[in-house]
Write a structure and sequence with these properties.
single chain; 79 residues; mainly alpha; 3 helices; 0% strand
């Protein structure tokens, strides 16, 4: 069963992607890395069917990528 606390992985994924970008990852590959990290986390952490793990990983990765780009766009509008 998935709990709301499981969504705490989203900020962790955002942080890991940001570290990768600081280490030289091109920004255009950041969403792809976020999805891969989300899937990797779901494969390791959850004890559900493989199909559900991949779906959850996609949700985590896309959430991390959308949350980051949404907050970045909001910050750019303020300046």
């Amino acid at each position: 069963m998935i709990e709301i606390y499981d969504m705490t992985i989203v900020p962790v994924i955002i942080g890991l992607v940001q570290l990768a970008k600081m280490a030289g990852l091109k920004p255009k590959y950041a969403p792809f890395l976020a999805i891969l990290l989300g899937i990797a986390f779901a494969l390791i952490y959850f004890q559900v069917s493989m199909k559900d793990r991949i779906l959850l990983g996609l949700v985590f990765g896309l959430s991390a990528s959308g949350l980051y780009s949404g907050s970045k766009n909001l910050a750019e509008k303020d300046h």
